[in-house]
Automatic annotation (TrEMBL):
Domain G-protein coupled receptors family 1 profile span(s) in chain numbering: 47-292
Membrane topology summary: Multi-pass membrane protein
Protein name according to UniProt: Lysophosphatidic acid receptor 2a
GO process annotations (BP): angiogenesis; negative regulation of erythrocyte differentiation; thrombocyte differentiation
Coiled coil: none
The family this protein is said to belong to: Belongs to the G-protein coupled receptor 1 family.
A GO cellular component entry from the record: cell surface
Compartment list: Cell membrane; Cell surface; Endosome
Stretches that traverse the bilayer: 31-53, 65-90, 102-125, 145-167, 187-211, 240-260
Region ranges (Disordered): 315-344
GO-annotated molecular function: lysophosphatidic acid receptor activity
PROSITE patterns: G_PROTEIN_RECEP_F1_1, G_PROTEIN_RECEP_F1_2
Length: 344
């Protein structure tokens, strides 16, 4: 971190300078935020562990799309953990943080959220490739999938470390933001615009997929093909609406707040909404498993088998251990396209 006369100043100095005052007294609102936040984070962690376990155990999910979904679950799991860390290092706890600890706290949140969004984009790219090449699964090799996943995490880690590597306002107080007092306003603008750009790319991809599938439905004359394509269009439309709707609801308010703060809006009262927007953005990590995994019939059945196995293990601790037995299904069913899976 660049050293200057403000290098040894406490975190509270920057908060007071930006107008985001913190106190050492816990209010009832702080306790409510902490309680609700921890509850949501626990659900996020457990649900994403379930997704990762299902993909690991069931060999039917050993395809690129499910590897990406597993990585998305890992990113959301990390988001839940990082947000728990944030909850226990916020409010009155913020006063006791050093600048180094404060940057670590922010880096964890930035990494997790960036990884989640990047994984959503990777899933969109994979679906775009498979549908336009008329394949049930991507032809990507395991090596390429691993490299892609590693690349996503490299980007997420880099984005998390950028502020601590110099894009901060420790030595230039006039550039400090209000919602994130040690970050420069220009970084908030960059981060918000980058995520909005990724969102726009996803919208364009899913819109193109939808138009392509609908056009193929109209051009295929056979009844079986028409019926299959019609079901694909309906399921695809539902998935696109849910994906885009959840993303817009969870991310847009926070990105707008960061953008307004970065642009130096003085009348926007960003501090009144920033905690709510951060919690709403974090809820996207809870919605992702539902959208991308729970809508898959095979995935839902695997979840039930895992949960039943856990229940049987608890009840049979003094007897013989239970095992999970996955029934073999028809190969055609096992290769069912993600977007053609039955809806919840």
């Amino acid at each position: 971190m660049q050293q200057c006369e403000n290098y040894d100043k406490p975190v509270s100095f920057f908060y007071n300078h930006s107008g985001k005052h913190i106190t050492s007294v816990w209010s009832s609102r702080d306790y409510v935020v902490l309680g609700l936040g921890v509850t949501v984070c626990l659900i996020v962690i457990l649900s994403n562990i379930l997704v990762i376990a299902a993909i690991t155990i069931n060999r039917k999910f050993h395809f690129p799309i499910y590897y990406l979904l597993g990585n998305l679950a890992a990113a959301d799991l990390f988001a839940g953990v990082s947000y728990v860390n944030l909850l226990f290092h916020t409010g009155p706890y913020t006063i006791g943080l050093t600048q180094h600890e404060w940057f670590i706290r922010g880096a964890l949140v930035d990494m997790s959220l960036t990884a989640s969004v990047a994984n959503l984009l990777a899933v969109a790219v994979e679906r775009h490739q498979t549908i336009f090449t008329m394949q049930l699964h991507s032809t990507m090799t395991n090596r390429r999938v691993v490299l892609l996943i590693l690349g996503l995490w490299v980007v997420a880690i880099f984005m998390g470390l950028v502020p601590s590597m110099g894009w901060h306002c420790v030595c230039d107080l006039d550039t400090c933001s209000t919602t994130v007092p040690l970050y420069q306003r220009s970084f908030l603008v960059f981060w918000a615009v980058l995520n909005l750009l990724m969102f726009s790319i996803m919208v364009a991809m899913y819109a193109r997929i939808f138009l392509y599938v609908r056009r193929r439905c109209r051009s295929r004359p056979t009844p079986d093909a028409d019926q299959l394509n019609y079901e694909t269009v309906i399921n695809l439309m539902k998935t696109v609406v849910i994906v885009l709707g959840a993303f817009v609801i969870c991310w847009t308010p926070g990105l707008v707040i960061l953008l307004l703060d970065g642009l130096g809006c003085k009348v926007c009262q960003v501090l009144q909404y920033e905690k709510f927007c951060l919690a709403l953005a974090e809820c996207n990590s809870l919605v992702n498993p539902i959208i991308y995994s729970y809508r898959d019939e095979d995935m839902r059945k695997t979840f039930k088998q895992i949960l039943c196995f856990v229940c049987r293990s608890d009840s049979d601790q003094q007897g013989e251990p239970s095992t999970i037995e996955f029934k073999k299904r028809d190969s055609r069913s096992s290769r069912r396209h993600l977007f053609s899976s039955s809806s919840a």
